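Example record

One chain of 469 residues, shown exactly as stored in the release files.
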Amino acid sequence: MDKKYDIGLIGLAVMGENLVLNMAGKGFSVAVYNRTVSKVDEFLGRVSGLPIGGAHNIPEFLAMLAKPRKVMLMVKAGAPVDAMLQELLPYLETGDIVIDGGNSFFEDTRRRSAEMQARGIRFIGMGVSGGEEGALKGPSIMPGGDAEAYAEVAALFTRIAAQVEGGACCAYVGPDGAGHYVKMVHNGIEYGDMQLIAEAYYILKNVLGLDAEELHSVFAEWNQGVLDSYLIEITRDIFTKMDSETGKPLVEVILDKAGQKGTGKWTSQSALDLGVATPTITEAVFARCMSSYKAERLHASAVLPGPECRYTGNKKEFIQAIHDALYASKICSYAQGFALLKAASEEYQWQLNFGEIALLWRGGCIIRAQFLDRIKSAYDRQPELANLLVDSYFVDALTAAQDNWRLVVKTCAELGIPIPAFSASLAYYDSYRQAVLPANLIQAQRDYFGAHTYERVDRPGSYHTEWMK
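Predicted structure tokens for this chain:
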């Protein structure tokens, strides 16, 4: 075969197809393969005139690629990735590069990286965020793994990534599973952001009685200030869509059961493993779990009493209070995500650059926001910053929002409105700012029933007391 393609991509679902179109549109030639080979022919029939070629089997596919071969996998995370690697291995050669662009669990990526390295294959675990639109127009790309291998494909991925002022939203993150870990934490923060916005909507609708048109106006205004972000923007737009069958706003006829694919859960599990507090993110995961209990909640709503939801305060002032509570809680959610990245960087010796990670998320991805520039500035001021909450900008922002934040949480508690992510964020803030917490009593209890010992405030060492003597 005379023509050799720059890169090959396996997996022609929506994300895979759009990445191929993105690459081809930027001048790169792409060979494609899919296990269901009819999808290859169908796709090629829609992209005539572009530098895209197709194959019906693995040997044919790899023969189409320039050496060292560069193969990107866009297949379902988990066992399908391992299965595809096993199909590829007999035909790969030393020095070839395999890129996993799916939502793989970072520990799987660490394992695969070591396995491929032992066989002379260079492996890149690459987080890709932005959904199908981002894949086509420019996603946020978080590559990790073999640094030398990434250097060979950097020009391609930098070119197809989202472009913002200051450069592309693509940069090497760190070794083995670092890229997929950063993508996982991105998704955990996304869970927190979405839940916080949903809670703000719930308060505006159920406490203040705003209709869809008013909700659209509120979110449109919020998107002009510190809350300016992709998620606020699409929330604004959601309230303008009407259901053709009922004539109601479409959001009102959507069942209140939110799905999840697992990356938020992975974030919380990793936080537990590393001993990092991520209550906003974890409550967002739990909130999706709670939403799935629809039948149980319908029954409970008829038998469990609660206060009457009637607000008599100033409507305009309370909308501003919700805005401030949302911003303050958002700061806490990101602070938790970056604290987790810091702990993981130390645990796995990744040497993550937190300011640069913030820049990767400024465009293309789901959590892209004006706010990320502030995070980059915080790490520029203090690269070893322990927590974003103590950066000078965020101290000022939280101080300014604090009274309204507390007002919203207090009011919702009094009215029986569930806001688990808002409440968890405030508890995180209040816990982090306390010089003394009640854990001394917990440690006394642990020593009492299990002789786990304790430390003292007045001298070093480990102590045990026979409490009943």
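Notes: The CA atoms of residues 124 and 150 lie 7 Å apart.
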